[in-house]
């Protein structure tokens, strides 16, 4: 455990090379280029020359952009001797895509050229950025922090263990996935692929280590925060605007739901001293595509909802209760307005107000409950479409199958679910993390593909990654001494603690 890797120069060069490969999420060919580069880079290692069956370029399922992720397995030197025994493993994770580069403005051509970019930034940056440039401590560029320096660190450690398998009392699995900055299709496909390989080789993953970035401090995080996109979609009843009280305006119902949930700190969640932010809307819209004097028939809202322990089902139940309150408030408002209008109309006009039947009270249901009631099934997600648009269109499709077309309020999730992972500080991995000599924090605070480790079973996870400033900004920069030398050394120590 006294070994220390002096790897700064090597990892600086590798990180610069990774940054130079434009890999903007959702851009034609970009993510595939960096995946193929990483695959080719590892294929030159002696281990993978001898074991090419342990290196995979995994195409993302149903992906119109034809992107791939890279998966590598380094087995211990004793694997052949104990082929029928279960092998313990640690999994390394890092994403290879970045956000877009348009925020660099006229400097966009330099966004993936760290050395030229830092000089060009002198012309436009404030004093604090100039201080960081002059310090020589930082590498600038899109993806340097988030998270190509982390990928470089994982590659370095993977290569070391591939050359020193006698150090391993277990296996290493590495995943370098595409589409993390989008809808995580790369990770979802890869987890299924990895599951199959684990069963084939009788490998059990003991823990996961994600190398994503932190910005407040260089720290190791136990577990990760979860994120859901609960949606409420209201189907009302349309009418001509000249007969407004014959309609049931779904926009009113949705506005009441927003009033009940948006920024409501009652929904904040606490665990191990961490507290989530309250839910907030990410989109609110009706479904009319053209102008007309017909009132709206349906509208929806979806919320960003952070979680530390709550499941999708628990969150939907909370949203359902708030939707029921909102429906009652909306109907009370309509009833009060209708009565007032009738009284005004009868007082000032010879023609009395035409009294209509009472407004139908819409039932609040989950989309699954409604599909069963209508006698249909929810279709599998079409991953060639935007996943949020798919779920909205699916709710409309199912409502159209309801022969009565009664008003209804539906609750469902409309995006990729990122489940939280909780790691007890007194657990084996928690104790190992505490021995690294850096701050230990609970719950990695940014959404990441690390959440999907739970698809491999009850796998504890830590985030031990890069450190720097301004991710997703044109001043993005990674602190090099920690990220390119200390980080791989810490990762090496943690792997040995977990496997030995």
Brief write-up:
The protein is about 35% helix and about 20% strand. It has about 500 residues and is of the alpha/beta class. The strands form 4 sheets. The protein has an 8-stranded mixed sheet, sandwiched between helices. Strands 8, 9, 12, 13, 14 and 15 form a 6-stranded mixed sheet that branches.
What is the secondary structure topology, with strand pairs?
Blueprint: H1 8-20, H2 30-43, H3 46-50, E1 55-59, E2 68-74, E3 87-95, H4 114-121, H5 127-135, E4 138-140, H6 144-163, E5 171-177, H7 185-201, E6 203-210, E7 220-224, E8 226-228, E9 230-235, H8 250-261, E10 270-271, E11 274-275, E12 280-286, E13 298-307, H9 312-348, E14 363-366, H10 367-374, H11 387-400, E15 408-413, H12 428-434, E16 440-444, E17 461-464, E18 468-469, E19 477-479, H13 480-499
Parallel strand pairs: 3-5, 3-6, 6-17, 7-16, 14-15
Antiparallel strand pairs: 1-2, 2-5, 4-19, 7-17, 8-13, 9-13, 9-15, 10-11, 12-13, 18-19
